[in-house]
Amino acid sequence: MRIRKVSHRKLPLTTRGQLRILFLGTGSAFTKKNYQNNILIVKGEDHVMIDCGTRAPEALSRLGRSVGDVRNYYITHSHADHVGGLEEVMLVNRYVTRTRPHIYIPEEYQTILWERSLRGGSEENERHEGEGLGFEDFWVVHRPTERPDLPRRGTEVQIGGINLKTFRTRHFPEQARSWDDAFYSVGLVIDDRVMFTGDTQYDEELITTMEELFSPEVIFHDVQFFTGGIHASLKEINGLPRHIRDHIYLMHYPDSWRDHADEAKRHGMQFVKQWVFYDFA
Ligand SMILES: [Zn+2]
Ligand SMILES: [Zn+2]
Q1: What's 144's DSSP letter?
Q2: How far is the CA of 117 from the centre of ligand 2 (A)?
Q3: How far is the CA of 77 from the centre of ligand 2 (A)?
Q4: Among 103, 99, 83, 80, which Cα is nearest to 91's?
Q5: How far, in Å, is the centroid of ligand 2 from the Cα of 7?
Q6: How far is the CA of 53 from the centre of ligand 1 (A)?
Q7: Residue 162: strand, helix, or coil
Q8: Is the pTM of this model over 0.85?
Q9: Cis peptide, bond prior to residue 106, ω within 30 of zero
Q10: How far is the CA of 155 from the centre of ligand 1 (A)?
Q11: CA-CA distance, 101 to 85, in Å (whole number)?
Q12: Which pLDDT score is estimated for 8?
């Protein structure tokens, strides 16, 4: 993996062919110093944005882009730091850009996302023959392929040259005992070489299973600084074997992350930086 600073006034949405990951933000749900943990994956002519939190449109704007420029979306779960910017995506596309962006979403999660989050601010903006708008008036919908051979109800999508495989995570509620007991939330394997945990409680079995299956070059792992609640703590992650920690980059961190940089380093890990190109040749 090569790390380079973003040097463009307008964030490029293409590469020379290499896989590129850019964190539009690296912060936790309540961050005030970073943006939220949403990423843009770019490869050749293709791109997809993973999650679009409340502050993602602002982060894109600071990088010279509008949500109207992003054509493909994949959403991991319904917390506002992951979906809070979607209403802006929908309204800008419908009324300014006048196109529909593409969303890759299982049917099960489309119902959750529409009924419980997006419908309130979008359905009644128009009325045609007595009916308001629906999800598919805003989005071109693509269904991931079920991959029952992968662990945890895996799915797969191909977005141009970008391959995403998903796995369910044990994120919330705090009381969930396993991933299939938890509410809908997924993490990703990108091009069979990068693991992005999404939001999850500490889940050693998930990490070791994915290590065995994909031997990822890098694992982007969410972190918090106390044990309990709905994210993995630094203390818990410190307990993973050294050969796994060696390629863990910590993301989704609270504003106090600098106080923990030495501890992470001692354990062979570092914190992800926002607005940096992570390039995979
Ligand atoms: Zn989150
Ligand atoms: Zn979350």
Answers
A1: P
A2: 14
A3: 7
A4: 99
A5: 30
A6: 9
A7: strand
A8: yes
A9: no
A10: 21
A11: 14
A12: 80
Distance of CA 157 to the CA centre of its chain: 15
**Cα 128 to averaged position of ligand 2 atoms, centre (Å):** 35
What pLDDT is recorded for position 38?
A: 98
* Domain layout of the chain by residue ranges: 2-280
State the pairing for strand pair 145-147/19-23. unpaired
Asked if residue 48 has pLDDT above 90, the reply is: yes
For strands 19-23 and 276-280, give the pairing: antiparallel
Give the architecture (CATH level 2) of 2-280: 4-Layer Sandwich (3.60)
Percent over 70 (pLDDT), the chain: 100
Q: Convert the pLDDT of each residue in 222-277 to its tens digit.
A: 999 999 999 999 999 999 999 999 999 999 999 999 999 999 999 999 999 999 99
For ligand 1, the distance from its centroid to the CA atom of residue 35, given in whole angstroms, is: 11
Ligand 1 mean position, distance from CA 78 (Å):
9
How many CB atoms are closer than 10 A to CB 17? 11
d(CA 272, CA 222): 10
Distance, CA of 64 to CA of 159 (rounded, Å): 24
